[in-house]
Amino acid sequence: MPTAVPFGSWPSPISAADTARSGMRFLDTIAVDGSDVYWVESRPQEGGRSVIVRRSGAGTIDDVGPDDFNARTRVHEYGGGAFAVSAGTVFATRFTDQRLYRIDPEGIAEPITPEPPVASGVRYADLAVAGTWAIAVRETHDGGGREPVNDLVRLDLTGAEAPRVVASGADFFAAPRLSPDGTQLAWLTWNHPDMPWDATTLWLADVDATGSVETPRRIAGGTGESILQPEWSPAGVLHFASDRTGWWNVHRWDGSGVEPVHLAAAEYAAPHWVFGSRRYGFLADGRLVAITVSPEGERLVVLEDGRERQIPTPFVSFHDRIATRGTTVLVTGAGPDRPTAMVAIDADSGAIEVLRQPDGPPVDPRYHSIAERIVFATPDGPAYAWFYPPAHPEVTGPPGESPPIIVAIHGGPSSSTVARLDPEILFWTSRGIGILDVDYGGSTMAGRDYRNRLDGQWGVVDVRDCALAAAHLAASGRADPQRLLIHGGSAGGFTTLLALALHDDFAAGASYFGVTDLEALATDTHKFESRYLDRLVGPYPERRDLYVARSPITHVAEIRVPVLLLQGLDDEVVPPSQARMMRDALIANRVPVAYLEFPGEGHGFRSAEARIRAIEAELAFYGEVLGFQPADTLPAIDIIGG
To answer: Domain 26-169, what fold?
Structure first.
């Protein structure tokens, strides 16, 4: 029989170092070049370096480029779309200087874009390659404090000619896509104050053999319609995802108008936070294959004769990257009993080949916590969460006790969570602490109406739904109402801090690089998100009252429970000043607070050292707050005040 041990004190074989090592993240585009497959993966053990990896048709796996090459673009600060490949040659943005490099098959890297007058001031992303030239998104920073300029440029891939502008005038550009015969170019634009999940415009233009763009024309999109992911079928028909029906469903341009390909209550695209996101593609015979997302979860499907057929797999979640080769689908997938891996799946037979899986030993299946879908009521209708209960083969909680849980808040806030076997989640559940991962109203997994619940209501609906989710779980007996914790990063940190102030449900919380002052965010953030709050809160400065009223720092006097703040010092999205301001106010109010800064880390911790320190600090913090003794030997955490 399992031994009764206090929740939080369970001995676990899943260490913080294991979560960092096993938590290798697959990033950026999956690219197919002949029989070779390329992708980018983040290496926590190498300081979070983004490494281009090639798997040959023979199955050998090699890193591409010099040993110190960090393939990461800073366009929109969130990046993505950092590389492309053609005939064995890779073209990639180098993080250190943001110049574009040509990497030959021997791994020699040579810059092909000019050195900018301002260090890292000219950035490239989302290449569409055609022979010796390519079309790319460019973002130019002049160093003078003015808003960066975005455009599309034609690049000479030999480096002999300077970049040439082919499209300009919009605030943002994305997804340049060349037709199979190279004679047409499609792309997306949008303007302030819209975000790409609010409204985008799809353009189409003729292209000549030299890469000159002629007669651009708008073919879809505009106010109230979000178009994402333009793609060309093998037959040269332009497809794209549009939410004109309320969901991001696939449509096509027939030369004179737009028609739906398949209508379903599911999303066939992901919100454009990063470049290179791709949830659907085409098999060689023209069939469309897609990762679909709905409140019920994610599925891998293929459209055949106008009908959708699910491809049976052991996976329950997929990263927003898909590529195809013949009848093979290349994706990263995670199952309830297996971590995220790069796999090749035959769309017809369902046969699976694992191309790449995380380093380190697999987690003992006896420690797997299987996600359960939670649906709970809100004033706006049902909302959703995934619950991961504590799981351990040898110990259980004290008789009659329910476990503490952490209400996990995703970033964005226009994002969502998925069911998965995640080593960081198992770190908590194997120690007797449950995880409730919430898709509050505004999350991007249930159509436009659900997404729009957050319009003008950020700091209201998200906070309310997280408190309702926690109360729902506690009422069912699966969580101790006196030991409800909450944590989140970025926008999730904002929601965490407001929930601690405005609701008395939570015993403590942890904010990772969270927003504390909306007014400061509106006036001191990067271009991509500089008008984001117009829709989520209201126009600034006209509705400055709302910015003040919704800011966690305004309600700091109402926070009476302990808070952990974790902040990267190189964060360009939420500057360290925001976390420091919250720390100082909590100390002045005699509220227990622990504050950790991470040099060299930006908006999201990448290095193994930072990720290990953060999760161990959070465990030690909760142990102090809830009065349990972790079984781990942990670095001391300094809690000030209270």
So the answer is: Methylamine Dehydrogenase; Chain H (2.130.10)
